[in-house]
Amino acid sequence: MAGLKYLDLMVTISMQKHRILILFPLLFICMTFSVSGWGGAIHAVINEAAAQNVPEEMSAWRAYAPLLAEHGADPDFWKRDDPAEPVRHFIDLEHYGTPPFEIPRNLSPLKNGARREGEAPWAIMDTMERLTEAMREKDWYQAARIAAAIGHYVGDTHQPLHCTVNYDGYQTGNAGIHLRWEVQMPRRIGSAATVTSPEPAVYITNLWNCVNGWIMEAWPLCANILQADNEARWASRNNVESQYYFFQLWEKSQDVFLRQISWAAADLSSVWYTAWVDAGRPEIPPPPRQISSASIHVGRAARSPKEENRKGAIAVLAVIGAAGLIIIISSVFKQRRQNTPPAK
Q1: What is the pLDDT of residues 130-184, one digit of tens each?
Q2: What is the SS3 assignment for the chain?
Q3: What is the pTM of this model?
Q4: What is the mean pLDDT of residues 102-123?
């Protein structure tokens, strides 16, 4: 995965009726950089669990789980080249009044680029349309790419700190909490976390209402995270780099952390299932061996191997044709020279 390596990631899934138990070592990032979302490993876990959680009638989709997990963090890397990408990962609810917030369904276009208060709900709606169309067209290469991306966006809407202006705690004296809570904390605890997996996937009749519901439920949990940070800082004498600080932060907020991961996987499996049903329940073939990590939003979408082969064949034929034409023209000129009398 571009720029991101996992030392280890083991997801053991055991299905028991409608519940799945996921055990994984929370091992994250081997290089230091600023990230958004849950961090690469958690996005992988969410995508993996969601793929395993689809209904039995969509069971062929479960084979896509490793591929969807591998590319779960891709959208974070697209931010480097696409200035419109970062806003797809969050929404600042405070821009929409006071609770209960009212987010307009229609997003009016902006003249000067991306919306500063975030576009996460609209990004999910747009990506969902593209996923449904790819499945309807039986383009499973693109479907896998788009599904991995929407998995990232759905995961981010379940991260409470992606739903508030105070995303990094600067307004409340909790500066730096974003990275500490979503990446450093699970990495520092260094032990396997047990996540009770999502409820069974269901067909979503109104995706916009569902997306808003996820965000509205996540937003109040910001207060729990900030309070946990305050208590952990006090207990560790404000040493936010200490192991004791992260142990305290985990003890006081693990319920929020694990609950949101579980709900993200549940809701994501419902999103994928809904796209498949709306596409007409097409037969799902085995997954491609690999897919592109390039952005699904910038430029032409990466072509599938079949398309690449077709383009390659056309290019080869074009070269052969051009070479043949050159040979014919050369032959004609040679014959003309032979039939032309020598100059006096």
Answers
A1: 999 999 999 999 999 999 999 999 999 999 999 999 999 999 999 999 999 998 9
A2: CCCCCCCCCCCEEEEECCEEEEEEECCCCCCCCCCCCCCHHHHHHHHHHHHHCCCHHHHHHHHHHHHHHHCCCHHHHHCCCCCCCHHHHCCCHHHHCCCCCCCCCCCCCCCCCCCCCCCHHHHHHHHHHHHHHHHHCCCHHHHHHHHHHHHHHHHHHCCHHHCCCCCCCCCCCCCCHHHHHHHHHHHHHCCEEEEECCCCCCCCCCHHHHHHHHHHHHCCHHHHHHHHHHHHHHHCCCCCCCHHHHHHHHHHHHHHHHHHHHHHHHHHHHHHHHHHHHCCCCCCCCCCCCCCCCCCCCCCCCCCHHHHHHHHHHHHHHHHHHHHHHHHHHHHHHHHHHHCCCCC
A3: 0.78
A4: 79
At 74, which amino acid appears? D
